[in-house]
Structure formats: structure tokens, C-alpha cells
Amino acid sequence: MEAFPSPLESAKFIAGRSKDVSVDEDGARRVAESLFDKASAAEFGLAGWKSLHELNPRAASGEAVDWVFLVDTLNFSFWSEREEHKYLVKYEGKTYSGYWSLCAAVNRALDEGIPITSASYFATMTLDQVRHVFRSDTEVPIPLIEERHRVLNESGTVLLEKFGGSFLTCVKMSEKSAQRLLRLVLENFPSYRDEAVFEKKKVSFYKRAQILVADTWSVLEGKGDGSFDDISSLTIFADYRIPQVLVHLKAMKYSEELMKKLREGTIFQSGDKEEVEIRGCSIWCCALICKHLLELYEKKGQDMREKINAVLLDYYLWDYARDHREEMKDTPFHRVRCIYY
Q1: Whose CA is closest to 154, among 24, 17, 338, 339?
Q2: Between helices 273-299 and 25-35, what is the axis angle to 10°?
Q3: Is 239 a catalytic residue?
Q4: In whole angstroms, what is the distance from residue 105 CA to residue 89 CA?
Q5: Sequence-ordered alpha helix ranges (H) in the chain
Q6: CA-to-CA separations, 24 to 9, 28, 148, 254, 334, in angstroms, rounded
């Protein structure tokens, strides 16, 4: 059995040794306090995944699980080099950017009769077919198209050879455990192994693997095969938006030197020290926010462990980033082109 380091343990290790990124414990507590009223509201809950996002599947079916698998297999690298120069997809009268442009392209393909969520189709897709399905409504193509083609072929082949062509088989095999499902994904799908080396130690983030488990939980509404009793063992999904929100909310700080590089638009490589610090500290910071939130509810005599976890906090912060883009534009995000996020 291959050893997959825990993202939470990795985050604690990174945050304790980080030079250019620091977690502000008081800031994390203030964010928790500001979320206190919201965390019991519907938009913080599981239902928000469907009710707040029109492109997500409505059904809790095998087809919906296959949609989630396809989308999270491609859930990486949507940021634009220039704000006015973006990959956009029009669907049902609306124009979508970022991650939602991917979802819109998938739904557009399904409407056109292209079985894009079927492993037997995407395992053998040609690069031209991938280009067609994910075509842009601007002159800017989707980033990393060759990598997307490779990952689709590879993942589709694994699904067909090992899991009868459906991700639902993996979900059933995990027997209602988020951690077992996470491990199955990491053991079988190489593109999900989001790891680095920090201070000579192997560390992990597993952004897409964890989001795949979380979205499976969400699409199945936490019921049936998706009733993972250990969903709160997942961490937030360390991408480029969540760190930006945490810095904006003053729960995390960057050194002047790092801030200068970010403002200059420096492109980092996956595994660079600063990039590992940004991602690791984000995970640790959100773990502290969750801890403080639960403590606040405990003081009020409420046990919210079923309702508050890093997954729901991530969903909330990610939507916050989208809705407060204007106020956040002075806080730069870190730029990396890779298949992990």
C-alpha cells in the first residue's frame, strides 16, 4: 500500500515552518465570529451545493456522480492571464467564466448529444474532440488542453478497466467512508496525486481528490451511498482562490517579499516553496476557523459537528470570493499552471 500523507498533518507541518506565509490565529478567530450567524443558515449547508449553483446536477443519481467525476477530473487551472482576456462559455443565455465555464461546456455537450460523462467516450476522445467540447465563446481557449486530453483518456481507461466504467462503483466500494473513497481515488487515478516535498518531507494537499469526495457527498445529498460519516475528516481544497480570501479577511498574512512577487504576476511552479507554504497554511488556517466556530457554538450549548466542516467552509469561502471579487482585487492570487488546481 502506498503511503498517502494526510493533508491536515501536512498543513500543520508546513504552517509550523513557513517563512513567507503566516496564519493569524486572531484573524482566524474573527472570521469564525463573522461566520457564526451564517453557519446555521441554509447557504452554509449541504443543500446550497444544488440550490445556489444552477449548473450542478439536480438528481442524486449514478449519472450525476459520473458528471461530478468528469468535472473534478478537469477541475484545474481556470485563471486568466489578463482579466479582460478570458475563456468564457455561453450556456442557456448566460456566460460563464472560471470553473463554471467547464461545467457549462460539459452541460452544453450533453445537450448536443455528446456522451461526455461516459467513461467509454472520454477514454478514447481525440484531442480535436476535447477541443470541440471545451470550445470557447471568446478567442481565449481553455488552458492546458493537452493535459486535459491526457487526463481524460487516462481516467476513463482506469474507470473502464477497474470499475465497470462508472465512478459510482468506487463510491459503493468505499462503504460510506470519505477517507476510503479518497484512498481509492489516489491509488487508482494518478492525476489526483497532488503532493510536494517541503523541508525534505513529502506533503500532500489532494485538492481535486478531496473535492471529488466532497462533491460526491453533495450530489448524493449526504444520503445512501453518499452518507459519509467521516466527511469532516476532509480539509479545505487548497486552490488559488481560498488563500486570496483568507489574506483578504486577514486570517493569513504574506511577507512583503512574497506580496511583491504576487503583485508582479510571478508564475510559480507546482512544488515551489512559496506555493507549498500558501497552500499548506490555507488548509491549516481553515482548520482553525472550523475549530473556533465549533467552540463558539459549544459555548451556546449547540453541538454543530454535523453541520460545520471544512468542506462546507470551503464552499462558503469560494462563493464569497466570487461574490466579492471587486473588494478583493487588491489582494493578488498566486499563479500556477498545473493539473492539481
Answers
A1: 339
A2: 50
A3: yes
A4: 6
A5: 7-17, 25-35, 48-51, 62-73, 98-111, 119-122, 127-133, 145-162, 167-173, 178-188, 207-219, 241-248, 256-263, 273-299, 310-323, 325-328
A6: 18, 6, 37, 10, 19
CB 206 within 8 A of CB 174: no
Q: How many CB atoms lie within 10 A of CB 84?
A: 5
Cβ-count burial of 307 within 10 angstroms (0-12 exposed, 13-18 middle, 19+ buried)?
middle
Q: Report the C-alpha gap between 188 and 163 in whole angstroms.
A: 10
User: At residue 301, what is the residue type?
Assistant: G
**Are 215 and 221 spatial neighbours (Cβ–Cβ below 8 Å)?**
no
> What confidence tens digit (pLDDT) does each residue in 79-121 have?
988 878 999 999 999 999 999 999 999 999 999 999 999 999 9
> Can you tell me whether residue 42 is helix, strand or coil?
helix
Report the amino acid identity of residue 194: D
Q: Using an 8 Å Cβ cutoff, are 130 and 148 in contact?
A: yes
Give the cell for residue 310: 471544512
Measured CA to CA, the distance from residue 236 to residue 242 in angstroms comes to 9
pTM of the predicted protein model: 0.91
Q: Which residue, chain included where needed, has cell 468564457?
A: 88
> What distance in Å separates the CA atoms of residue 258 and residue 337, rounded to the nearest whole number?
18
Task: Name 258's Cβ contacts closer than 8 Å, sequence gap at least 6.
Answer: 20, 21, 274
What are the beta bridge partners of residue 336?
268
φ/ψ (deg, to 5) at 86: -125, 155
Q: What is the largest CA-CA distance in the chain?
A: 58
Catalytic residue among 239, 314, 323, 330: 239
- Residue in the block written with cell 499548506: 280
What are 259-304's pLDDT values in tens digits? 999 999 999 999 999 999 999 999 999 999 999 999 999 998 888 8
